[in-house]
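Example record for the data management plan.
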Amino acid sequence: MDNLSRAQNKENEIKIENLKDRFDFFEKHTVDNKKEVAEKIEEFYELLNSHVINNENPHGVTSQQVTIIKDPSSYQDASYSGDNYPIGISTFPLSQGSVGFPSQYGECLNIKTTKYRFAQLFFHAGNREDSRIYLRHWYPSTGWTEFITVPSSSDVDEALKSAKAYTDAHANDKENPHSVTKEQVGLSKVDNIKQAAKTEFDTHNSDNTRHITADERAKWNTGQLYKLTDDNGGRTLIPDGTDLLTLPSGLYYAVSNKIINSPDPKAVEWFHYDVSTNNSRKTIVVTATANPRRWFGTIHTDGSFKGWQRFITDVDAVVTWQSPTLLNGWKQYGTHKVQFSKNVLGEVEIIGSITGGTIGFEVPAFTLPAGYRPLQMTHFIGVASSIGTGSAPQFHRTHISTDGNVYIQSCSNTVNPNEFITFGFKFKSA
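Corresponding structural encoding:
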């Protein structure tokens, strides 16, 4: 081996030794890092487990923020005052026997930031099929509102399905559902005349069966055997002072107050009188023309007149509502205003609600005007507020005297007797 080869071998041996030293260094470094990582992981799990099993509230959550109501017994009544609920977020379960909630089984979540800002959500228990959320609010001066339903996605889908079905049915309705008139679409200016074809006209013109000669016309035109109308085919004017009940069959007209036995003898307007007879029996139909009203009367075989009966129409069913002047501290309750009306049959109806006044046998809440008072004193039982008495229905006793005074005599709700009193009564007026 020459000197060059020896020198080359020596250099290679040195490089190999250096590589062995570096490999040993890296091997030791890798082992040390692996041990350090394992120690860090073990330290992390110890910290995590310590946090998980920590029952000392490591995040400092207070009872003002989240409260599980431990004794929910008094909360099982939905009318339980909202003032008694804690500030913050609270929850409690409902069990059998609860009253006033959408179900006897479920959970209530209460969100209360101040005494004036309080909302309550109700969820059915997990094994119930009803997935809806129910919501109500509390305000100190008015108490609890009614529960409303927060619709689920299935509710919305069903509503959209119903709306589409209604829209499709309406779009396919060819029976003029909006009662469009010919005036609205301009047809009132068009003559509704059907034109015959030339062949049809020629056939008609040559039809001797339908047409008569002048001699035939003179022979047949002998006048009415009994004149039901005047010579022009119109109604016959009744002479002043005529007794309507003595007229023969026919169509007549007259001013109502100028004839005898008219159904409205004080009316100074033109009436139409339609009389039909059958032997001694008679039927008379009377129609007022200026202010459309109609009557009918009959005369029996024995000649006795059975009196006038008036036809009642949908116009007669329309009533005018009036609001009374409230007395002794009573006020209208929200939008359910107390009102009264009288229909064409003489029936007086009272509706609406009042609140806040004095209850008593001699303390009127309001007075009905003359013409709207009962034939004799009348008593009614109506619905009263149940606030403060749980969910049991409450009632009031009301007396209406013949002088029109309306008294709220008593109320079964002794806690809030005048919270609200409702009316839904009808009686025959004097």
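Summary line stored alongside the record: Residues 3-52 form the longest helix (50 residues).
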